[in-house]
């Protein structure tokens, strides 16, 4: 089997966990983490090396993942036996007289991963190959204030349409959901814009109906995982995903791991306060970041400024009209991006992540919106010498990124990866 080559990316600096692995391999007497945890860390780093760099030999994977040649065999062989990875055709060795290397990559015939993106009023399902290819997409709408059983029926029908196209039983189902999520117990705690989902034990419901493992996480965290494995987060050890739309959310990747907080409660960025005694938020509090940096604020301002069709105003539209010479669009775009920058400044001052990937409405503004946000952040943040702050846009698209991230949650659970 021959593999197509892929662009090469660096895995970046070692995480604390990887330094612990290295210490153990060099004969250190102190065990800093358990062997099972080390195994999960190593598996995750080998898979990320494949995602970042494409098909690689065992020797290359050992070097990229920072493990020794003996360890790499123990990592990849079980995944070959489980048909997750497959060996390609042998290629000549770089070392004269050495054994020909056989590159490893994801098995195109491996079971796929079920993925669900659940947002207020819409359901999107698909199958995701280990390589990230998306197939069997199905979409449906539901009544956000309707009956729970009616929602479950729509969800089951939509997911069944997707899973029925799988050649073999998927590894499991990953759900990226809007709202406040208890990822430990598999429950949607509350969704202000879709009350029908509030309190829904979705993982238990889907496990009963499909007899497959199911994992659920907050929509922005799925975006983050999609960024890390397939997008601008490749090779990074620290970055944040920021999503704007009808609501505002985000997620953190810190020292090589997704930060979730207690029961998945971390990342409620939209409800961090940026304006004391500010406008009332959907959550019942005042001055949340969401009240000044999401579409409802933008459209209210557009109406106040007498924009034509203010309910259709988006960041992309503002960029287009500003480029066409509209002073009003240019000024509103500047205010909007400055409001988005306020929250990023707070993140930067608190966590010093330095890298931020934009999703949702503000990402629709493309490079111009990202550059305006970066400029505002640079003006507002207290910088350290040599510090560079990156604001980028995921050009893959929010839906595909979230679905790939949801699939990544399944793979992580299946392999007990540390992400």
What is the share of helical residues?
25-40%
CATH architecture of the largest domain: 2-Layer Sandwich
Distance between the termini: 30 Å
Sheet with most strands: 5 strands, mixed
Strand content: 15-25%
According to DSSP, the number of beta strands is 14
Count of distinct structural domains: 3
Low-confidence stretches: 5-31
Instruction: Fill in the CATH topology of the largest domain.
Output: Nucleotidyltransferase, domain 5
Mean pLDDT: 87
N-to-C order of helices and strands: HHHHEEEEEHEEEHEHEEEHHHEHEH
What is the CA-based Rg, rounded?
A: 23 Å
Structural class: alpha/beta
Overall shape: globular
Biggest sheet: strand arrangement: 5-4-3-6-9
Key terms:
Nucleotidyltransferase, domain 5; alpha/beta; 5-stranded mixed β-sheet; Arc Repressor Mutant, subunit A; single chain; 39% helix; 3 domains; 12 helices
Give a brief rundown of this model:
The chain has 419 residues and is of the alpha/beta class.
Tell me what the structure shows.
- Residues 1-16 have a biased composition (Polar residues).
- Belongs to the ROK (NagC/XylR) family.
- InterPro entries: ATPase_NBD, ROK, WH-like_DNA-bd_sf, WH_DNA-bd_sf.
- Residues 1-23 are annotated as: Disordered.
- With 419 residues, the chain is α/β, with parallel strands linked by helices.
- It has three domains: 16-106, Arc Repressor Mutant, subunit A; 113-223 and 401-415, Nucleotidyltransferase, domain 5 (2-Layer Sandwich); 233-395, ATPase, nucleotide binding domain (Nucleotidyltransferase, domain 5).
- 39% of the residues lie in helices and 17% in strands.
- It contains twelve helices and 14 strands.
- The protein has helices spanning 16-25, 35-53, 58-65, 69-81, 148-163, 202-210, 219-230, 295-304, 315-323, 327-351, 366-380, 398-415; strands at residues 85-87, 104-106, 113-119, 122-128, 134-141, 173-177, 180-182, 187-190, 214-218, 239-244, 248-254, 257-259, 355-360, 390-393.
- The strands form four sheets. A five-stranded mixed beta sheet has the order 5-4-3-6-9, sandwiched between helices. A five-stranded mixed beta sheet has the order 12-11-10-13-14.
- Helix 9 crosses helix 10 (327-351) and helix 10 (327-351) packs across helix 11.
- The longest helix is centred in the C-terminal third of the chain and has 25 residues, at 327-351.
- Mean pLDDT is 87; it is low at 5-31.
């Amino acid at each position: 089997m021959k593999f197509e080559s892929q662009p090469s990316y660096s895995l970046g600096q070692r995480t604390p966990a990887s330094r612990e692995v290295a210490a153990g391999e060099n004969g250190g007497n102190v065990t800093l983490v358990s062997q099972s945890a080390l195994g999960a860390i190593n598996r995750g780093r080998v898979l990320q090396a494949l995602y970042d760099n494409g098909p690689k030999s065992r020797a290359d994977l050992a070097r990229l993942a920072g493990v020794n040649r003996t360890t790499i065999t123990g990592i990849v062989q079980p995944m070959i036996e489980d048909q997750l990875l497959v060996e390609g055709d042998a290629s000549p060795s770089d070392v004269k007289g050495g054994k020909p290397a056989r590159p490893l990559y994801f098995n195109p015939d491996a079971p796929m991963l079920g993925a669900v993106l659940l947002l207020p009023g819409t359901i999107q399902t698909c199958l995701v190959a280990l390589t990230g290819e998306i197939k069997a997409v199905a979409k449906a709408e539901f009544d956000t204030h309707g009956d729970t059983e009616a929602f479950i029926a729509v969800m089951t029908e939509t997911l069944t349409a997707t899973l029925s196209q799988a050649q073999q039983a998927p590894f499991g189902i990953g759900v990226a959901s809007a709202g406040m999520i208890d990822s430990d117990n598999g429950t949607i705690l509350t969704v202000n814009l879709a009350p029908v989902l509030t309190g829904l034990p979705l993982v238990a419901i889907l496990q009963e109906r499909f007899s497959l493992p199911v994992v659920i996480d907050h929509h922005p965290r799925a975006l983050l995982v999609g960024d890390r494995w397939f997008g601008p987060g490749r090779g990074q050890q620290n970055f944040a995903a920021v999503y704007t739309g009808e609501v505002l959310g985000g997620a953190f990747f810190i020292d090589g791991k997704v930060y979730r907080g207690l029961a998945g409660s971390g990342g409620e960025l939209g409800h961090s306060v940026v304006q004391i005694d500010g406008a009332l938020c959907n959550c019942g509090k005042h001055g949340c970041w969401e009240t000044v940096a999401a579409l409802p604020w933008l459209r209210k301002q557009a109406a106040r400024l007498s924009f034509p069709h203010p309910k259709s105003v988006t960041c992309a539209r503002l960029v287009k009209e500003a480029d066409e010479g509209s002073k009003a669009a240019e000024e509103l775009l500047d205010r909007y991006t400055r409001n988005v920058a306020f929250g990023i400044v707070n993140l930067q001052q608190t966590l010093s992540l330095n890298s931020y990937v934009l999703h949702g409405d503000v990402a629709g503004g493309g490079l111009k919106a990202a550059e305006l946000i970066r400029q505002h952040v640079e003006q507002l943040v207290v910088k350290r010498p040599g510090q560079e702050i990156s604001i980028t846009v995921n050009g893959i698209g929010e839906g595909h990124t979230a679905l790939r991230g949801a699939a990544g949650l399944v793979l992580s659970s299946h392999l007990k990866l540390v992400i």
